[in-house]
Amino acid sequence: MAGTRYPRWHTASAQGPRERNADAVSAYALAGAPGITFALADGVGDDPGAGRAAQTAAAAAARTPVSEGPVAAILNAQRALRELGGTGDAVLVVAMPFAGGYRIAWVGDARAYAWNGSMVRRLTVDHTLAEYFRSRHQPYTPRMEHMVTTSVRTTKPHEIGTSEVVGGGLLLTSDGVHKVLPPATIDELLGDPGRGAAALVETAIAIGGSDNATALFVEQPEVDVAYVVTERFPVAA
Q1: What contacts 233, CB < 8 A, 6 or more positions away?
Q2: What InterPro entries does UniProt report for this protein, alphabetically (predicted)?
């Protein structure tokens, strides 16, 4: 794909105090597409089925043709999970390129943020019980922040969240990052060139994060050729 302009991107993941790392990322550039499709999944639970579900969902979503759109990517991930069998499930966020930006789709509490070079802006709204009650000005408990109302396996098409962003960079995270690090800390860490994803993950674990932490950071496009920096990504058993 000579001549295609790709941004630099970085991904990193670390296992928190869990039995396994059930997060997964995938990136795929289909011939003729305007860029790279990115997907980040977080397996529901702490067992091998959760890890397989995350890997399967992320791969199926990232390989969806751009012409079909990011909602179709979520539904393709759902079909792949159901064909896999078992009960494994995951939450998922997909960023699909179009001219000048990305179209986003998600289920659960995996997040996408826009990055303007100095600060992030959240593009997604968590599908959790806490967010459901918070949006209705009703009381909720801290535990509800981790109880998702949609997932890859269970979502219906109309429940899939959508958004888009034009220009700038992009950040995808699992909740082991964004529910530990406040936005100001994320801004500071992303400002360290070449260390964005790794710095987010390392800091989330270092300050006592209780979950696996995964980040995928797409820098603002500045180069003419594909250039990828990838930290070691532990795969679930």
Answers
A1: 11, 12, 13, 25
A2: PPM-type-like_dom_sf, PPM-type_phosphatase-like_dom
Using an 8 Å Cβ cutoff, are 114 and 120 in contact?
Answer: yes
The tokens describing 7, both together, are 């941004």
Contact 130, 140 (CB under 8 A): yes
By residue range, what is the domain housing residue 63?
9-230
The token pair at 223 is: 């180069």
Tell whether 3 is covered by a domain. no
Q: How many domains does the chain have?
A: 1
| Sign of the dihedral through C-alpha 167, 183, 192, 216 | negative
- CATH code, domain carrying 199: 3.60.40.10
pTM, to two decimals: 0.89
**Overall average pLDDT of the 219-234 stretch:** 48
Query: What would the pLDDT profile of 112-141 be if each residue is shown by its tens digit?
Result: 999 999 999 999 999 999 999 999 999 999
